[in-house]
Amino acid sequence: MTALHFAPEQCLQPHMSTMFENYQTADLYKKNVDHQVDLQNLPFADETFDFVFASHVLEHIPDDRKALSEIRRVLKPQGMAILPVPIVVASTIEYLAPDPLQDNHVIAPGLDYYERYADCFSSCQFYSSEDVDAEYQPFVFIEENYPHPLRVDEHKMKDIIPVCYR
Q: What is the tens place of the pLDDT at every residue in 93-113?
């Protein structure tokens, strides 16, 4: 299988590189990747990859809908993409310029954000951190008194992982 990993996390690269026969990395700015590319305009042929992974990337992309369309385009039939974003508000907010107070996000994804995926993918399944055994909980830990729509208790909020199929 072929995989494309955007904004590759160093802690995941060793594991993912052994999971796929052809594992490639990509980023717009990083130099130590296989492809220095813009997610809004991918240079790859249609139906190139079986798997695409981009965790907490789309909220940085000015035209995230174009990026989603490009991800779908490069996925093979029956291909899968895992594309989580941080849900930080109740309803998605789009900024006119990158917000330096939010790691230069151009979007503050809300609970409604994943509705955008329906326009590009044949189906999506959503997995919540609440669905995972306690020993593997992928909760995001937050400061006390921080208002958040997915807050679980005073220290953690649940995370939602979308698994999208072409």
A: 999 999 888 788 899 898 899
